[in-house]
Amino acid sequence: MKKNVKMLSLYDYLGRAAGGELGREVMNAAQAHPKFIKVEVREVSNPAYTGKVMLYPQWFLEEYFSSVSS
């Protein structure tokens, strides 16, 4: 049975632009994670940014940010 996993960008999760450095750190953590982390891409266009953003499973972002803030 396939679970419906909520995919979020860093902007969706944090409520603000994350920036390139944090984006790279999160991607590196996803690639190094012991579980396979499925990452998706979304095209966005707004006054502040046009381009691709990465989408991560919500559970992964919760795990990542709870570990870096503790």
Count of the domains:
1
Low-confidence parts lasting 5 or more residues at pLDDT below 50? none
Biggest sheet strand line-up: 1-3-2
User: What is the share of helical residues?
Assistant: 40-55%
Strand content: 15-25%
Describe the structure.
With 70 residues, the protein is of the alpha+beta class. It has one domain. Helices cover 43% and strands 23% of the residues. The chain has three helices and three strands; from the N terminus they run βααββα. Strands 1-3-2 form a three-stranded antiparallel beta sheet. A hairpin with a 4-residue loop joins strand 2 and strand 3. The chain is globular and about 35 Å long.
Q: Can you tag this structure with a few keywords?
A:
70 residues, alpha+beta, three-stranded antiparallel sheet
Explain the layout of strands and helices.
Blueprint (H helix, E strand, L loop, with lengths): L6 E2 L1 H5 L5 H13 L7 E6 L4 E8 H12 L1
Antiparallel strand pairs: 1-3, 2-3
Question: Could you write a compact summary of the structure shown?
Answer:
The protein has 70 residues and is an alpha+beta fold. It has one domain (7-69). Helices cover 43% and strands 23% of the residues.
